[in-house]
Write a structure and sequence with these properties.
The complex is a heterodimer of chains A (about 700) and B (about 270).
Chain A (H helix, E strand, L loop, with lengths): L8 H11 L2 H4 L4 H8 L3 H17 L1 H17 L2 H18 L1 H9 L1 H13 L1 E2 H14 L6 E4 L4 E2 L3 E4 L2 E2 L5 H20 L7 H7 L3 H23 L1 H14 L8 H8 L6 H11 L16 H31 L12 E7 L7 E7 L2 E3 L3 H14 L41 E7 L4 E13 L7 H8 L1 H13 L5 E6 L4 E2 L1 H12 L9 E5 L5 E8 L7 H17 L8 E9 L5 E7 L7 H8 L9 H14 L4 E8 L12 H17 L2 E7 L8 H5 L4 E3 L5 H14 L1
Helix pairs in contact in A: 1-3, 4-5, 4-6, 5-6, 5-7, 6-7, 9-10, 10-12, 10-13, 11-12, 12-13, 12-15, 14-15, 16-17, 19-21, 23-24
Chain B lengths: L24 H10 L4 E4 L6 H12 L3 E5 L6 H5 E6 L2 E6 L1 H8 L2 E5 L9 H8 L4 E4 L4 E4 L5 E6 L12 H4 L3 E4 L5 H12 L3 H16 L11 H12 L4 H13 L3 H14 L1
Parallel strand pairs in B: 1-8, 1-9, 2-5, 5-8
Antiparallel strand pairs in B: 3-4, 6-7
Helix pairs in contact in B: 7-8, 7-9, 8-9, 8-11, 9-10, 10-11
The chains are: A alpha/beta (about 700), B alpha/beta (about 270).
C-alpha cells in the first residue's frame, strides 16, 4: 500500500464539503478540516476513509464522527474505532438516527462496554454450545434464549446478553454454563412441583419467603448436581469461591444436612422456609438467577393440558395400530398402565414401562418425550393421562401456538414472525447491514388453466429432443476398457499383450474391463424473477421455459438429482417475498404445473436477499453438487432504497460470493440483452448466458448440467 | 499374537466372542440356521451386530466370511472373477462363492451400500433355491447345507436411494438390534474394557446424553462400541475427559460448537 500523504486543511475541506453536502446543509466544515489537518498522515487517511463510508449511510453520523475523531483516536485503537462506527451504523439501521447518533456521542460508554466485551462472554456467540449442552442433559429438552434476567419458565432458559462478572472469557463461559445447569436442575429436580405462587401469595412477607425458598433450593439443587454431574459441580464450586461469600450462616448446617439427602424434594425446602426466615440468609450465589413463579405457573398450566392431550391421542394411535386387522377392531380401547422399575441412576428413582392390558409394549420416541416431561412435572403419570383419547375428543392443532400468517403483511398488519432476516452488503460502507432484509416464504398461487399441457403440446418436438439431451446425461454404467483392476478380462487388450510378450516386449498390466458409473447427486434450485418488468412476454417465456425444463429434468429424477423452483419479488427491504412453486420433496404433478402457470409479475427484484435465502435452503439439502440457477430479465433493483445501479449489483455479487464459499454453483440465464455489462461482474464470465428465445433456455440448463458433472 | 494367513473359508472363531444377549436373538438365529433361512440384522452402528455374528459363528462352529459393502461393490466382487496368471485366465472365487462352497456363514455388512446388481446374486441364495448363479463361468453353485447368508442394514440413514427394497427384505428373517438398556450396557463396558462399575456407569450416562442430541445437532449418538473404546483408554490410564474427547466426541461430529458442547457434557460427568 502506498504511504498516505499528509493533507492540509485546504485539501481536506473540499472533500468534507462534498461528502457532507455542504451546498445544501450549510454545515461548518472549517473547524473539522483544521482539526484533521493536525493528525498524522495515517490517522488522517483512516478517519477520512471512514467518514466517506459513514456519509454514504447518513451525513449527520459522519459529521459527528469527525467531530469525535480526535478524541476517539486517543481512546481506542483502529480496530475498536471500526467496531464503534459499525455498531453506530447497525443501531442506525435498526432504530434510526437518534439512537445511532447516541452511540457516536457516548463514546466513553462504548469504551467501557468494549472492555467488558473483551473479557466477557456474549450470549450470541455461546448459544451454539449452550443449547446442545442443556439438551444433552437428561429430561425435557429446554431451549436457551436471551432475556433480561437469568431464570427459567421450565421450558426456556433465559440468560443475559453478556456475562462479564469475571476477568477472563473462559471463566465467564463457565458462569454461563453454571447458570444453565442450575436452571436445568430446577426443572429436572422438581423445584416447580410445589405450588410456589400460592404459597408466596399467602405468606405475610412474600419477597423474603421467595428469597428463603430460593436459597434453600439452591442448596438442594447443588447437591443434586453434585450427584448427577460431579465434574460440573467442581467447576461451580470454583466459581463460587471466586465470586461469593462461601460461608453458610450459622444454623444452616442442619438445614443443609437435610436438603442434601437424596430423597429431599422441593417440598422439604418449602417446609424449611419458616425455620430459616428469621436468620441471616446465605449470599445469593453467582449462577442461581431468579425464581419467577408466575411465569412458570403460566407455562406449566398450558403444558400439562397440552401434554395430557398429546399423550392420550398418542395412546389411541398405539391402540388402533395394534388392533388393526384384528377381529376386535371395534372393541373398546385397551387399558394402559405404567409400570415402575426401580433404578437409582435416574433422579426419579425408577424407570417407567408402558403396559397395555398387562403386557409391556415399546414406547415410541415421540411418546417417550411427552411421558418424560409429564413425569418431570408431576413425579408420576396419573391414571387420567393414560386413557386413550375418544374419537374427536382433542384437536391437537388447538394446542399448538398461534402463528401469524406471513400474508397478513399485505393486509396492513406488519410483523416479522416467521420471516427470515438476512444481511445486505453496502458497498459504500464496505460492510454488511445486519438483519437488513426481511424475507418471507409464501406458497405460490396455483392457476389450473392447462397452461403446462398447452406448452407441452406446443413444443412437443423440442421436448422430445430435450429429453434425449438430458437422457444422454444419464450416463448409466459405462464399460471402461484396459483397466488395471476390473470385473472381466478385456480380450482385445489381452490378445495384444499376448502378442507383445511373444515378440519380447513388456506385457501391459491393463487387461481388465470395469463397469463404472459416475455418481451424480445434484440439487438445483431455479430462482425465477417475478418482478414487474417481466410482465408480458418475459413472464410467459419464463413459465414456458420452466415447464420445458421441469419436463426434461424428470428424466434425471431417478439418478438422485433433485430440483426445486422458487419465484421472488418484493418491494423494499421489509417485503422480500419468495414463492414456493416446487420444493425438493414435491413431485412434479398437476399442482406444481398449476403453480408454474400461476407465476405472475410482481414488483421489484432485490436479488441479494433471494439468493441468500435460497442458498440457505441449498445448504440444508444433502447433495454432492448444488446449483442455483437464476432466470431473470435484468438488473437487480428495488424501491425506495438505493438498490438500483451499483448498490444492487454489488450486493448481488456479494450474496453470490457467499454462496460460492459454501460450494454452491450459481448461474444466471437472462433475457436482458444488455446484461453483458454487469452479469460477468456478478456471476463471473463463464456463469451466465443471455438467451433470446424460450426454446434455448432448457438447452442452456442441460449445458450447465453437463459442465458441472463432467 | 502372531499374524496368520488364512483362507476366508478356513477362518473359524476359536474362542468365545463376548456377547450379551438382549432378547431371544440367539434362539431365533439358531432356528433360522437350522431351517436354512437367511437373516437380516437391523440396527444402528456399533450396537453389536458384527459381534453377534462372530458369536453365532463360534456357536455354530462355522467359518465366518464378513464383507463390508461399499458403494463400488459389484456382484463380481462377491461371486468371483477371472484373473490373468502367466498367460492364462484363472477363475478365482469371491467371498460369497467361497462361503457357498465351504458351507460358511457369509455376512454382508451394510448391504444397501453395495451396487444394485448384487441383488441378482443375493436373491436366488436367499430363497428356497439356495443357488448362486456364476454367470461368467456358466455354472450354478448349489449351496452347502451348512451355508448361511446374513446381511445387515442401518435404517437410520433415511435416504430414498439407500433403502432396502421390499423384494430383498421380504426374503429374510429380521432381527432388530438397538443399544442395550443402561444396566446391560454398563455390564458390557465393564466386561469389555475391565473398568470399575462406577466408571462404566458414568460412560453409559454420557452415551445417553449424546443420544439425547440425536436429531438436534448429532446424526447419531455414541454407540456401545465407542463407549468400549473410551473405557479401554481409561483403563490404560488416560484421563476420562480426554478419553471421551478422543474416542467419542471427535468420532461423533466435526462441528465446532457441537464438539464443544459434547466435551462440556463429558467434562461435567467426571
Amino acid at each position: 500500500m502506498p504511504k498516505p500523504t499528509q493533507l492540509t486543511a485546504d485539501q481536506i475541506l473540499p472533500l468534507l464539503d462534498d461528502w457532507f453536502e455542504v451546498e445544501f446543509t450549510f454545515r461548518n466544515t472549517d473547524v473539522l478540516a483544521a482539526a484533521l489537518a493536525l493528525m498524522s498522515a495515517g490517522d488522517q487517511a483512516f478517519v477520512l476513509d471512514w467518514t466517506r463510508r459513514i456519509a454514504s449511510t447518513h451525513v449527520e453520523i459522519a459529521f459527528q464522527f469527525v467531530e469525535q475523531s480526535t478524541r476517539a483516536l486517543s481512546l481506542m485503537d483502529g480496530r475498536m474505532i471500526e467496531a464503534w462506527v459499525l455498531h453506530a451504523m447497525d443501531i442506525y439501521d435498526r432504530s434510526g438516527l437518534y439512537s445511532g447518533l447516541k452511540v457516536i456521542r457516548e463514546i466513553d460508554l462504548f469504551v467501557r462496554q468494549g472492555r467488558e466485551r473483551a473479557s466477557g462472554c456474549v450470549f450470541e456467540e455461546e448459544v451454539g454450545v449452550l443449547l446442545p449442552f442443556v439438551q444433552g442433559l437428561s429430561g425435557r429438552k429446554l431451549k436457551v434464549e436471551q432475556g433480561d434476567h437469568t431464570f427459567t419458565d421450565s421450558e426456556v432458559i433465559f440468560l443475559p446478553a453478556v456475562m462479564a462478572h469475571l476477568p477472563d472469557k473462559q471463566e465467564n463461559f463457565k458462569l454461563y454454563k453454571a447458570a444453565v445447569a442450575h436452571l436445568w436442575a430446577q426443572a429436572r429436580f422438581g423445584t416447580f412441583r410445589v405450588d410456589l405462587e400460592q404459597y408466596i401469595a399467602a405468606h405475610p412477607t412474600p419477597d423474603l419467603a421467595l428469597r428463603c425458598f430460593h436459597a434453600l433450593e439452591s442448596v438442594r439443587l447443588d447437591a443434586c448436581i453434585a450427584r448427577e454431574l460431579p465434574g460440573l459441580f467442581r467447576e461451580m464450586g470454583e466459581l463460587r469461591e471466586k465470586l461469593d461469600d462461601a460461608d453458610l450462616p450459622d444454623g444452616w448446617s442442619s438445614v443443609t444436612a437435610e436438603l442434601t439427602r437424596r430423597e429431599a424434594t422441593a417440598a422439604d425446602s418449602l417446609r424449611l422456609v419458616d425455620k430459616v426466615i428469621g436468620s441471616r440468609l446465605p449470599a445469593t450465589n453467582c449462577y442461581q438467577g431468579r425464581l419467577m413463579p408466575a411465569e412458570v405457573q403460566a407455562v406449566l398450566a398450558k403444558r400439562l393440558e397440552r401434554e395430557q392431550a398429546q399423550l392420550r391421542v398418542a395412546l389411541k394411535l398405539i391402540d388402533d395400530e395394534l388392533k388393526e386387522g384384528r377381529e376386535d377392531e371395534e372393541a373398546p380401547p385397551g387399558k394402559f398402565e405404567v409400570d415402575k422399575k426401580p433404578d437409582m441412576s435416574v433422579p426419579e428413582g425408577f424407570q417407567i414401562e408402558l403396559m397395555l392390558d398387562g403386557k409391556s409394549i415399546p414406547i415410541p420416541d415421540d411418546v417417550k418425550g411427552t411421558m418424560t416431561s409429564i413425569l418431570q412435572d408431576l413425579g408420576d403419570v396419573p391414571d387420567e393421562y393414560l386413557v386413550p383419547a375418544g374419537a374427536g375428543e382433542y384437536e391437537l392443532k388447538d394446542y399448538e401456538e398461534q402463528r401469524l400468517d406471513p400474508e397478513d403483511v399485505w393486509g396492513g398488519t406488519y410483523h416479522e414472525e416467521g420471516a427470515f432476516l438476512y444481511q445486505e452488503w453496502d458497498f459504500r460502507r464496505k460492510h454488511y447491514r445486519k438483519d437488513w432484509c426481511v424475507v418471507r416464504e409464501l406458497p405460490a398461487k396455483p392457476s389450473h388453466d392447462g397452461f403446462a399441457d398447452r406448452v407441452v403440446t406446443k413444443y412437443r418436438r423440442l421436448l422430445g429432443n430435450l429429453r434425449k439431451t438430458f437422457e444422454a446425461m444419464r450416463d448409466e454404467d459405462r464399460l471402461l476398457k484396459r483397466q488395471v483392476y476390473g470385473d472381466g478380462v478385456d480380450i482385445d487388450a489381452f490378445v495384444e499383450a499376448w502378442a507383445d510378450v511373444h515378440v519380447g516386449l513388456e506385457m501391459s498390466d491393463r487387461l481388465f474391463t470395469r463397469m463404472h458409473r459416475d455418481e451424480r447427486n445434484i440439487a438445483v434450485i431455479f430462482m425465477v424473477d417475478m418482478s414487474g418488468s417481466t410482465k408480458g412476454w418475459v413472464n410467459e417465456a419464463e413459465r414456458e421455459a420452466l415447464v420445458l425444463t421441469a419436463e426434461s429434468l424428470e428424466t434425471l429424477e431417478t439418478l438422485g438429482d433433485r430440483y426445486a423452483i422458487y419465484g421472488f419479488t418484493g418491494s423494499s427491504r421489509k417485503r422480500c417475498e419468495i414463492y414456493r412453486v416446487k420444493t425438493f420433496d414435491e413431485p412434479y404433478g398437476d399442482e406444481v404445473k398449476a403453480r408454474i402457470s400461476g407465476i405472475e409479475a410482481g414488483d421489484y427484484t432485490r436479488m441479494g436477499a433471494a439468493i441468500r435465502h435460497l442458498s440457505q435452503l441449498l445448504r440444508e439439502v444433502e447433495a454432492r453438487t448444488k446449483l442455483l440457477i437464476t432466470l431473470s430479465d435484468g438488473k437487480p433493483e428495488d424501491y425506495p432504497d438505493p438498490y438500483r445501479g451499483e448498490y444492487g449489483v454489488e450486493d448481488t455479487r456479494q450474496a453470490l460470493y457467499e454462496a460460492h464459499r459454501d460450494g454452491i454453483h450459481a448461474f444466471c440465464i437472462t433475457i436482458d440483452e444488455e446484461g453483458q455489462d454487469y452479469l460477468p461482474h456478478m456471476y463471473g464470465a463463464a456463469n451466465y448466458a443471455v438467451v433470446k428465445d424460450v426454446e434455448k433456455l432448457p438447452l442452456k440448463v442441460s449445458d450447465i448440467y453437463k459442465r458441472i458433472t463432467s | 499374537m502372531e499374524a496368520r494367513i488364512l483362507k476366508p473359508e478356513e477362518y473359524f472363531i476359536e474362542s468365545e466372542p463376548y456377547y450379551q444377549p438382549v432378547g431371544d436373538e440367539i434362539e431365533i438365529f439358531e432356528a433360522a440356521y437350522r431351517n436354512l433361512l437367511p437373516v437380516l440384522l437391523k440396527g444402528p452402528t456399533g450396537c453389536g451386530k458384527t459381534r453377534f455374528m462372530e458369536h453365532m459363528a463360534w456357536r455354530l462352529k462355522r467359518p465366518l466370511i464378513a464383507v463390508s459393502c461399499h458403494d463400488d461393490l459389484t456382484a463380481s466382487d462377491l461371486v468371483g472373477r477371472f484373473l490373468v496368471k502367466s498367460g492364462e485366465t484363472v477363475w478365482v472365487d469371491g467371498p460369497l462363492a467361497a462361503a457357498v462352497r465351504a458351507g460358511a456363514i457369509c455376512y454382508l455388512d451394510e448391504v444397501v451400500e453395495a451396487r444394485k446388481d448384487t441383488t441378482v446374486v443375493i436373491h436366488p441364495l436367499a430363497d428356497d433355491r439356495r443357488v448362486l448363479p456364476m454367470e461368467k463361468i456358466g455354472e450354478l453353485l448349489e449351496a452347502n447345507a451348512d451355508f448361511c447368508l446374513a446381511i445387515s442394514y442401518n435404517p437410520g440413514y433415511q435416504s430414498v436411494l439407500k433403502d432396502l427394497k421390499q423384494s430383498t427384505r421380504q426374503r429374510f428373517i429380521a432381527l432388530e438390534f438397538d443399544y442395550p438398556d443402561a444396566a446391560l450396557e454398563q455390564k458390557i463396558v465393564e466386561n469389555e474394557a475391565e473398568v470399575v462399575p462406577e466408571m462404566a456407569q458414568r460412560l453409559v450416562k454420557f452415551a445417553h446424553m449424546t443420544r439425547n442430541l440425536k436429531g438436534s445437532g448429532l446424526d447419531e449418538g455414541a454407540s456401545t462400541r465407542l463407549l468400549v473404546h473410551a473405557a479401554k483408554l481409561i483403563h490404560d490410564g488416560v484421563d476420562p475427559v480426554v478419553a471421551c474427547r478422543a474416542s467419542i466426541a471427535q468420532a461423533l461430529t466435526d462441528d465446532a460448537d457441537m464438539l464443544a458442547a459434547v466435551n462440556e457434557l463429558s467434562a461435567s460427568l467426571f
